[in-house]
Amino acid sequence: MTPSSKPAGDISSVFPSLSDKVAPPLPPRFAALKTRLIAGHEDRLLASWHELLESLEREKEIIRARGSALIPEIEYGEIDDVQKRTKFRDSLKHRGVGVVRAVVSEREALDWKELLLRYIKTNPEVKGFPADQPTVYELYWSPSQILARAHPNLLRAQAFLMSHWHTADKSALISTSHPTAYADRLRIRQPGDADFALGPHVDSGSCERWEEDGYGRGHVYDEIFKGRWQAYDPWESSCRLPVQSDLYNGAGACSMFRMFQGWLSMSETGPGEGTLKVNLLFRKAVAYLLLRPFFKPKKGVDEIERSEFLGSQNWILEPEATSLLQGAVPGSCQEFNDVLHPHLELGDTMVHVPGVMPGDYVAWHCDIIHAVDRVHAGKSDSSVMYIPCCPLTEPNARYLVKQREAFWHGAPGPDYPSGEGEGPFRGRLSPDYVMGNVSAQAQRAMGLAKFDPNFQGIPLGEREILASANTILGFE
């Protein structure tokens, strides 16, 4: 039994570049959508596009000069230090990615990896990608993953990271101080691997970013479509609450609101060793992604010098709207490349995260373009558990209801490919184990225990979402 309505598959199911899936052209309705999105703002949009291209050039020079040094880091034990916390905050808000060091001890993270390897060996029927020698395993409920999600330090680090978001709507039903658990996969990548070559992409939808029934429900990107990309605030949360990020039931397309995607390291891994790369253009790259489908070059890259091709004066609004949304495929992640998104110059702006040790936590904003090394050129495994930062909201609570059922049966969560999953696996932890062995905070994060809306010090607005979540989860 499984609550997932997704087709069977693995992580390649949402990456056309991994699955060799050739998508047909988008239907004409997308041309009509593009026309509606910018109607009445065409002149302002063109001026905004030119401003964006010039701003991108300046930002790229900074990234070329400083690279990974731009990514902020903070020790877990220092997150209450006002001076260090402020410095971290300022860089995080600008770049959208950060590293929290030593969230759990190195020994504990390595023990979790050893426990995972035993779990995999004990259950050789486990699936993954690639099928013959998995790097990303279709595992969601192993003891290591459950214990990591339940760890009090990790929950505190998640709340710390989510505290950098704000809400313009003070009545919005959201709590960043009550993280919710999202059961994701894990990666154990061996030296020399070139199969798990995830190129630059953004998760949580593709076409949905332009669609009125997708991100348009919250008007998340309206300022960009109106020619005011500088006014776009990636840290405003209330506009994200109505969003539908999976309109096509993609096998692995996330429907839960993840403020940050993240992973907990189980290995010592440096740049080039099968690790994460992020695009530090962040907010400007989001604006570029969304505006790119409205513009075309006067002359192609084969007709003129590259610098002239990229120059703002070579780019004009489409005379007639097409259905093109470069890199967007229904039911898949949004992918990027140098042909479709030339101004991003991904070879320069995709930057490695700094070297990590077991127990370090890396988190990146849900709008950030990210990728992994095409080849793992290191000498030891590059291993992580994917654990994002998810606030408590009504839609996230509804997801927890379905995920809780999946946990009970050992099935993949509702966002993931369907199947029997880990139901018959030996050594799998059960909800009963969790109820007897982890903290009440972790039980609440998993949707297994009641939130306390009467806890001292909780603001009135936060009490409302706690009470509402209890009703959704069946505790009231």
Can you walk me through this structure?
The chain has a single domain (26-391), classed as B-lactam Antibiotic, Isopenicillin N Synthase, Chain (Jelly Rolls). It is 32% helix and 13% strand. The chain is built from 15 helices and 17 strands. The strands form five sheets. It has an eight-stranded mixed β-sheet with strand order 1-2-14-8-16-6-4-3. A three-stranded antiparallel β-sheet has the order 13-9-15. The protein has a two-stranded antiparallel sheet with strand order 5-17. α12 (394-409) packs parallel to α15 (460-472). The model has no long low-confidence stretch (mean pLDDT 94).
Query: Largest beta sheet, briefly?
Result: 8 strands, mixed
- What is the CATH topology assignment? Jelly Rolls
Which term fits the overall shape?
globular
Overall pLDDT level: 94
- How much helicity do the residues have? 25-40%
Give the count of helical stretches. 15
CATH class: Mainly Beta
State the end-to-end distance: 26 Å
| Structural class by SSE content | alpha+beta
Strand ordering within the main sheet: 1-2-14-8-16-6-4-3
Strand fraction: 5-15%
Low-confidence stretches: none
Q: How many domains comprise the coordinates?
A: 1
CATH architecture: Sandwich
Protein name: DUF1479-domain-containing protein
Pfam family, one: Gig2-like
InterPro entries: Gig2-like (IPR010856), IPNS-like_sf (IPR027443)
